[in-house]
Design goal:
Elements: E1 4-7, H1 11-23, E2 29-30, E3 38-41, H2 45-51, H3 53-86, E4 89-91, E5 99-104, H4 113-118, H5 135-141, E6 147-160, E7 167-170, H6 183-191, E8 206-209, E9 214-219, E10 224-226, E11 237-248, E12 251-255
Parallel strand pairs: 4-12
Antiparallel strand pairs: 1-9, 2-3, 3-5, 5-11, 6-9, 6-11, 7-8, 7-10, 11-12
Helix pairs in contact: 2-3
């Protein structure tokens, strides 16, 4: 599985995407308790899909048309670029279309002080992406003859980043060293002393520095984690479009 960056959106297109996410605020789902402002938008495999496959499929049937109407132009760009790099890619029904992680304030609000402080610490668990093995996904794969379960893809498209930048903590993959461009942010992430709270893991080996408007793709089974920020500001947000891919009958089937 290859890995790397793909340029997807211009600065103006990122602004259009941000407005689209804010326009759909009524569909945001809080995934961390207050005061942490961490939301998702879309039908998310690692939420409903893990424990409630029927609820996940039902939500996807509701959200997919909404997301496609608002962000179909981004899907077209993403699928085109990924197809050029990795081979044919398509959205797959009835799974959820790529959606969003939103770390930060709702539209027209400011970040609260406690949430800003917590954003400088690890918020999510260290994990690898195994959504392809969830019950709802397994049902979909049965319709294909050749499913490459070990050939899994994950990607993040950065749309809005905090002033100090944004990144991905990674473990056990020396090839990620080449993407560690923001040394100040990387040094901070590696200096945090409490990674033992996350299943006894050491700090990240390498910290991939995101770039606004660019998509970073990698093998989904690599251990990774949303990295914290070393400082936050009143109106900082981290908005990313998220996607995964499983190769079925020679085509990458893309979902959230």
């Amino acid at each position: 599985m290859k890995h790397g960056f793909l340029k997807i959106l211009t600065e103006e297109e990122c602004k259009k995407a941000i407005k689209g996410v804010d326009d759909l605020y009524q569909y945001w789902v809080r995934i961390e308790p207050e005061p942490v402002d961490f939301y998702t938008l879309g039908a998310v495999s690692h939420q409903e899909g893990m424990w409630e496959p029927d609820k996940y499929i039902e939500k996807a049937s509701k959200m997919n048309p909404i997301l496609k109407e608002k962000f179909g132009w981004i899907y077209d760009k993403v699928l085109e670029k990924l197809s050029e790099k990795l081979g044919p890619c398509e959205l797959i029904d009835p799974l959820g279309y790529p959606g969003f992680h939103i770390l930060g304030h709702p539209p027209n609000q400011a970040n609260n002080q406690v949430g800003m402080l917590l954003a400088t610490r690890p918020l999510t668990r260290i994990h690898s992406d195994q959504q392809y093995d969830y019950p709802a996904h397994r049902k979909v794969w049965k319709d294909f003859k050749n499913v490459k379960y070990s050939n899994t893809m994950s990607w993040t498209l950065s749309i809005e980043m905090p002033k100090c930048g944004s990144c991905l903590g990674t473990w056990d993959n020396e090839e990620m060293k080449q993407y560690e461009q923001d040394q100040k942010l990387a040094d901070y992430v590696k200096s945090i002393p409490d990674y033992e709270d996350f299943k006894d893991h050491r700090p990240p080996d390498y910290v991939v520095s995101y770039r606004t408007g660019e998509l970073f793709f990698f093998h989904g089974l690599m251990k990774h984690q949303i990295a914290p920020a070393y400082e936050t500001h009143e109106y900082d947000r981290r908005i990313t479009m998220q996607g995964h891919g499983t190769q079925c009958d020679g085509i990458w089937r893309i979902y959230f």
